[in-house]
Specification:
The chain contains 3 helices and no strands. The chain is elongated, with a radius of gyration of 21 Å. By secondary structure, it is mainly alpha-helical. It has a domain of 57 residues.
């Protein structure tokens, strides 16, 4: 196992301490779990993007042509066009380069 020195604002440290105490775990365990969750989310996006690049649009169209054309269930309807999307559910926008080498994100076809 490796060690890492981490500088946090006092307010964030206090909040992490409170959350870790609520879960009855150490701050180290809380932070390790948080980092693992974030890494998993990023790797999942990367995996799905890679899978999307391998998709065959003609095959997808052929499969979708088999689906009956019926209206969606009431809870499955798409929102009306005039509504704004929930920003909290949107992926983060790419930030300007601040060092490091990040691969450019690609959009899923849809």
């Amino acid at each position: 196992m490796s060690s890492l020195s981490l500088r946090l604002p006092d307010s964030l440290h206090r909040k992490i301490r409170q959350l870790a105490e609520q879960d009855d775990i150490s701050i180290n365990q809380f932070i390790a779990t948080a980092v693992a969750e974030k890494a998993s989310a990023l790797l999942t996006v990367e995996y799905l993007e890679e899978r999307a690049h391998r998709a065959d649009p003609k095959l997808i169209d052929r499969l979708l042509s088999r689906v009956p054309d019926v209206p969606p269930d009431p809870d499955d309807e798409l929102p009306r066009r005039g509504r704004q999307p929930n920003k909290r559910l949107q992926p983060p926008k790419a930030r300007g380069s601040s060092g490091g080498s990040k691969r450019p994100r690609t959009r899923l076809r849809g």
